[in-house]
Design brief:
The chain is an all-alpha fold. The protein is built from 3 helices and no strands.
């Protein structure tokens, strides 16, 4: 369980999302948020969460398949 959490926290997708979120917050606080950055940020965050959801669905399917064969 701990290994899974460490792997997730050190994954490239997670780190990029966290860094972009921090940059987003800084730009918004300084009122310098551009439309281009907002578009890129939205796409990357949507990709991250979409990919994570897809990965979870695949893992759940594998677990169900294993349980059915027992």
């Amino acid at each position: 369980m701990l290994d899974r959490i460490v792997n997730k926290l050190t994954s490239g997708r997670f780190l990029i999302t966290v860094i972009l979120t921090i940059v987003f917050a800084i730009l918004e606080i300084n009122n310098r948020l551009s439309t281009e950055f907002l578009t890129i940020y939205t796409m990357l965050v949507a990709f991250y969460f979409g990919k994570e959801r897809q990965d979870n669905a695949v893992n759940q399917t594998k677990e169900i398949d294993k349980a059915e064969w027992r």
